[in-house]
Amino acid sequence: MMIQKVYRSLVTAVLVAISVFLVACSSPAVKTPPTYSASQLEQIHRYQGYLQQVRDRFPELQKLIASKNWVDTRTFIHGPLGEIRRQSSYVTRLLLPGDQKQIEPVAKQLYESLEQLDKAAAEDKSTLAQASYKEAEQAFSRFLELIP
Asked: Which structural domains are found in the chain, ordered by start?
């Protein structure tokens, strides 16, 4: 009887040691980094194309600001540029979390610059309007560069 107890204890100790060794020596599961699917990329590129077309119209806005045509400046901001926030939000939601983290502050800067430009146009502040335009233009270009 005594030998059986010792034998059982010895077998249990050996099995525990083997289990600990196997767990300690096993390699962690390798995670594959998240990637975009073909359909995600297609959707992203569709929105990107629209945003690029809007970005290509920025020189028109610059001419309106230079001529201090505030009514048409504000109309342009709310008309052709009015969809920027919604379309860029669609793009941002399609991006992977790491890419979203990079692009969100740039999008926020773009929105704030356009809002400030609109306010400057409403208040007939040419210098502020020109500075806001430059900020918006740079933020928009940066935003488009960050889209995969």
From this structure: 36-146 (1.20.120.290)
